[in-house]
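re: ur question from earlier - yeah i can do the single chain one, its not a big deal. heres the input i used so u can compare w yours
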Amino acid sequence: MNFILRLVLTFSSVSFFLMVYLIQNDINPFKIELGIYDWIIHLIYGLIPFLTVLFSLSLCRFLPESTISKVISINPSDNNFLENYFAFFFVALSVKGLTAFWVIFGITIIFTYVSRVSYFNPVFLVFGYRFYYIESGERVKIMLISKKNKRLYLYRYLTYQSELLQG
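and the output i got, formated as tokens:
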């Protein structure tokens, strides 16, 4: 299940690349002329990244739960990947030709999958999720995607631990 989820997250994170290319080149797979309603097809393309994120969130139900025994630090990472993510837009805008698009899109998917930046997707931010780096007691850095404010929980945890030591 982890492989499938990572694959869906990878496609989801580069789906804006596909959306920008399809809109920029006025590609209409339905072969029907909608005239002034061409924006409907563009809207459908714009929904692709959001639908893939919703699909990936539905897959998360099947993942096993995991716990971290000791948390050393929690740091937000919402903006760490934004520059890399915008590169997808600029590449998609500069690609000319369908063959070049599929080659570059394929390479981008492969590199995104193996680099594990596939977990970052700004659509998660739109849905209210935040990205955090958690450092565990074993000095392992873990990326956590959550709707909860983890800094507040860490503050409460450290305050509670401090009270236990003093009391």
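Residues 2-68+79-130 form one domain. not sure if urs matches, ping me
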